[in-house]
Amino acid sequence: MKTLTAALSAAALLALAGCGGGGSGSADEGPVDLRMTIWSANAKHLALFDQIAAGYKKDHPEVGKITFEPIPFDSYTTTLTTQIGGGNVPDLAWIFESSAPDFVSSGALEPIDKDADLVPSTTANWEKDGKLYAYPFSTSPLGVFVNTDLVKAAGRPAPAEQIAAGTWTWDEAAKTAAAVQARGGKGGLVVGDFDYKGWDTLNAVWAGWGARPWSEDGKTCQFDQPAMADAMTFLHKLVFTDKGMPGPGVTKDFFAGDSGMILTQISRAALLEKAKFKWDLVPLPKGPAGDYSVVGQAGIGVFKRGKHADAAKQFLAYFTNAENSAKLAQFFPPPRKSQLNAATLGKANPLLKPAQLDSVVVQGIERGTIKPSHTGYAEIQQTVRASLDRLWKPDADVKAVLAGVCSKINPLLAK
Amino acid sequence: MTLLLEKPARAPAMTDKAPYWTMRRRDELAGWLMVAPQLAGIVAFVIVPLGLVVWYSLHEWNVLAGSFTFIGADNYAALADDQQLGPVLRATGLFSAGLVVLNLSLALFLAVLLNQKLRGTVVFRTLFFSPVVVTLVAWTIVWGFLLQDNGGVNAFLDVLGIDGPNWLRSGGTAMASVIVVQLFKNVGLNMVLFLAALQGVPAELYEAARIDGASAWARFRRVTVPLISPTILLTMILTIVGSLQVFAQIAVLTQGGPGTSTTVLVYYLYQQAFQFHHFGYGATLSLLLFLIVLVLTVVQWRMRRRWVFHEN
């Protein structure tokens, strides 16, 4: 009989374990817990978010825990959508500008209140039918960080001097990059997050030639246009002929002092806190199409299918109000007119000088174009990546490769 | 035994009517209850998910919008029209074939070498087996660094005066690199299985063959291989099934590139489902994978009669 009893109790235990998940449906009782997925795991960022959350909880006893859940940058959107697909929907999430059309058009997000202080160009990406679906908390212009020690050692003028002389152009930047790399062991110019895969980071270069990956309406591929061919030829030459950019499969960390320049978002300045070299931040060089600026964006949205959408909306309004926006400004350039000036930004960014903030951030956001995005972005991203791989070889036929890109993505753009 | 002992105690009281709980029924129930946990596991983690995958493959599932629409056989029609699928299946076949051939021959070669009664073989056995216990992703990341253009492998080749290729960035070498990284990771496991089989080959057969004048190669070919053929079959099935499910190495080392040269089936279905949000189509692709694995395994199992020793 013992055997039978043991087997029965095992089966009963199993049944209990199987049903355990379904029974507790009392989510509305007790304190409301909120969860926001983010792609930063920076301790200072998290400390600031926790501080803002603590301030909110003081006046909102109904709110229990507010969790900021870092997900690795590379797989962020994939992980987020997998969570959503699996029914584990976060209450709030950071969203890349490239995924904005997918998230906004899908109806997954709750509309949120639009503050009149927001600069119109910063919200355009996040609106549909006149409603705002995410708060563009980070509006980060791309700039060039320069290791002035390496540039001087290579016998090249510092970019700041060239800006003063009006000669800070892509051709000059290429010469500087090549000179730094020629000294051996160091990289010339690194394009941040590119690594010959994240081709969309090159938008910050193409825009100088007036090139775009696809038309404004998103329907037609423009990789095969002359401006793009010129820009890509310039990059190809910089990598393989002039040798001013570390080649495919070569890693050079600017922030560890291993390259002369990096083209990236200014929010990366935090990585330079302990830099052992002299550095500067300058605007993007002038391209054949003149002065330009490119802005990277990130939004925070509230999920309709989150457990506590209303509570999440209220928290988002607090998290991004003028006072907290000023605090967040030390890491993420704010989208608020009242805060987009060198004085406010300077208080929050001790690492950057007022002149740097004014030239790169303030003017950048005012003049800048937002990086192009599209619905079904991940598939387009991947398809272009696969087609462009043929470009990153010394003997590549640039025009043929670019025409190939268009033949691959036109069907996707037309969807 | 408890059941057997209890039966006679109750039996005298029920003489006119046969008891429902006969010994046979009790044993049957006990048997069912014993396998219940295992059965519940298989139902919950194999049968139900498999059924769900079939169900998902008949739907268009937009995770973001939260919509789940029945579309019938549309995903299967898309499968037939998918121009990417040809290259993907080619890459999968190339990876599998390369890995199976290299893995089995190297594993057998190492096993034969390490089956000799020489000093130090234990050290080498441990050395070749150790990658098996290393975490897959850690192993792959380290190889990722070594295979960079300015990485360890090319630095070593440079010392020898050889200008090494950009391993992970050019079509041919990328696939070869992924295969070799996987080969060294798992060859130790097959090696150990072969070693165990080799040690089960009776020494007198070799002796008899030697007396008959068989050369070393003939002894290997005519004595060793037939006797260890059940193990060859086992390792072959395991390696083929494993090679068809390769994912982490591709995700870490090449992300399917350059171009789509290393986009194998599992990586492609991951892209479709989790990156492009085509969960329904991803489910269809996973059924295709299931079918391929099933067919290959059945074919091998049926073919075993032709070449596997000890089988009827």
From TrEMBL, chain A:
Domain of life: Bacteria
Cell membrane recorded as keyword: no
Signal peptide as annotated in the record: 1-17
UniProt keyword annotations, A-Z: Signal
Record-linked Pfam families: SBP_bac_1
CDD domains according to UniProt: PBP2_TMBP_like
InterPro entries (alphabetical): Bact_solute-bd_prot1, SBP
Protein name according to UniProt: Sugar ABC transporter substrate-binding protein
The organism of origin for this protein: Kribbella capetownensis
Taxonomic path: Bacteria, Bacillati, Actinomycetota, Actinomycetes, Propionibacteriales
